[in-house]
Each structure stands twice: as C-alpha cells, then as structure tokens.
Fold this sequence. Notes:
The complex is a heterodimer. Chain A has a single domain (16-96), classed as Immunoglobulin-like.
Amino acid sequence: DVKVTQSSRYLVKxxxxxxxxxxxxxxxHENMFWYRQDPGLGLxxxxxxxxxxxKEKGDIPEGYSVSREKKERFSLILESASTNQTSMYLCASSxxxxxxxxxxFGPGTRLLVL
Amino acid sequence: xxxxxxxxxxMSVQEAETVTLSCTYDTSENNYYxxxxxxxxxxxxxxVIRQEAYKQQNATENRFSVNFQxxxxxxxxKISDSQLGDTAMxxxxxxxxxxxxxxxxxTFGKGITLSVRP
Lengths: 114, 118
C-alpha cells in the first residue's frame, strides 16, 4: 500500500514564526502536492512538484514556499506565519501510469496560528 | 479553467438505504478523468471511484457507482446499502488527461458531508 506521512497531526505556532510542514511518501512517486482545506472551500492547491527540485505554483501560493530536495520528501514552508494560514494542510503524491493517475493523501496537519 | 460544483453541503441517509451525491463540472476539455474521494472523520482522504471521460460505461466499485453524463457535465455518486462507515465528507474532483512528462492537477469541489443514521 502507498503510504504518505506528514510530520505532525497538530501544530500550534505564533504569528511571524517560520513553519515547516514535512511530507514523505514511500512509493517513488514523481508528483507531490500540497493543499489546504478550509470549511466551505474544499481543497485548494498551494504548490506541486513533478520532480526533484522542480516546483510549480498552484492556485493559492501566496505566503508559502516549497522544497523538494529528495524524491520522497516535499516540504511546505510558511516564511512568516499569519492567522489566516490557520487551516488543515494535506499532502498528496501520485505517479503517471498510462493515464491512470491517482493521488494518495497523507493524514493531514491541522495548523493553528495564534 | 475547470470548475467543479457540489451544490449540496450536507446529506443524511438511513443505514441500508441508497443515497446519491451530486456533482457538476465545467470544462472545454474532451479527455479527462473524474473522481470521488472520501474523507472520514479521521481525515485520511481515500479514492472511492474514478471515471475516464472516454468510457461510456459508468464505473462501479462494490456498493459505489457513478452516473456519468458527459453532455450534461454531471457526475453523481450512488451509494447503495449505506453503512455507518460511509459517514464522511465526499469530494468530487476533475483532472485533465495528460501525456507523460506533462503536469496535471486535481480540481476539487467544496465537498458534501454525508451522515449515515443507524
């Protein structure tokens, strides 16, 4: 089974802190994604990466950056956390297999910024 | 750009009954994929079912089936013999068809909360 893990289930940070959210997948997937999930808004894509050191902006990249130094690990960075970044963050990974691409999700990190 | 609309925020169903969750989408693409994802209260999102747009036959996975109407851009999920474990948030999602090396991403609807009553 594909396993996508996230470093923390719950995180509390102060405004202005630098925050790192880590995601690791164990299936050698090319693609990795970071979403945030907010009530009434569904999932919105922040950034994604289709290869090591490659990244592309999603729909809401402002206030975030990412890092992918190794294929299995994709980090989301909040350079200076703000209260409007309080949210659930979901990581996902996928690979392309003849058109049958499926995203596999981690358990999520619930971030509270005070 | 693609959009996915789930207009019902919440639904409730009695255990063992059948329920249908609605989803519509808008796209100018001809080749694409549609998905239903389930997110139980424990929060791990899992794939329920997928449909390739080029296939006319509706996808089925055990108690889960879809009604895919390409011309109407409608993609509903039917859950038969509902079980308490089906209680979850359900998301409809769209992905453009892509070739190897190209990029693709999922576009999600806002989700619907389904409660199964004992």
